[in-house]
Amino acid sequence: MMKKTLIALLTTVALSTSACAGEEQSSVTKTAQTAVKTASATMSPGLNAPEEAWRDLDPENTLYIDLEYGRVVIELYPEIAPLHVAQIKTLARQGFYDLITFHRVIDGFMNQTGDPKGDGSGDSQLPDIQGEFTFRRPPTMPVTLVGARSQGGKEVGVGFYKALPVATQPSSQAMLTKDGKVAAFGLHCKGVTSMARTSDPNSANSQFFLMRDIAQHLDAQYSIWGNTVLGHEHLTKIKVGSKGENPDFVPDVMKKVQLAADVAESDRVKLQVLKTDSPAFKNYLKTKKKADGTYPDICDIRVPTRQQ
Predict the structure, then answer these.
(1) What is the pTM of this model?
(2) What fold, for 14-37+55-307?
(3) For residue 2, what pLDDT is reported?
(4) Are the C-beta atoms of 305 and 231 separated by less than 8 Å?
């Protein structure tokens, strides 16, 4: 069976901003080959923001991945990748992911898991999923822009939808489209969760990867379905290596994967996320500006959270 490996290819996706904006895409099969380094942003637990600026996570769309190093909390986005979120939730509720290894881990890139065979060739018994590399964003999905990114020789506006970094056409263009929506896609920043596949764009099944760093070449070629909101520090502790390539490699495992909704309320992580469409978030962004008045790369900005 073909392994699901991450392979960088170069294509172009057009997104229009006030001018014409585009982005570089790539395809990921089920192993990883290139990596891009970036400095990770820091959390701001002491952020001074009013109560109304914080939002609770939806337990039905919050995933816990328990590792040897601690718990990783991931927010799921069914409005962006409904098929992938549904598949992840079904498999988590089946207990499929419990004790599954991170069979391919590349430093500065990603942690790949979700293969019951543990070598990159396995999948679940569920059907494969159609690719959801981009999405159509209605006005009811507000994005706070933090600038633009050059991709494919053009520029595309980038910002935050909830806690997820995205690239998007401006909302003003919605009035020009038949469906009243604009094109958008998630960005492969550290902490983002995305689905592995073969060269067939509709071959994703159970294998996925958690980003250890930035991989812009994957954007709009792999289906992003979630983002880490707590436990970023654990992502780079997962042991580096590839099963079948490194003889002495003993991979780490996901001890337990479950939805917050399936955990007793008293045992859930009491976590809130700053609303990215709030004045408080805009004020927070001002503190991140560089000396020249511009923002750092969007992947170096982390949406603040707080535990209660």
Answers:
(1) 0.87
(2) Cyclophilin (2.40.100)
(3) 59
(4) no
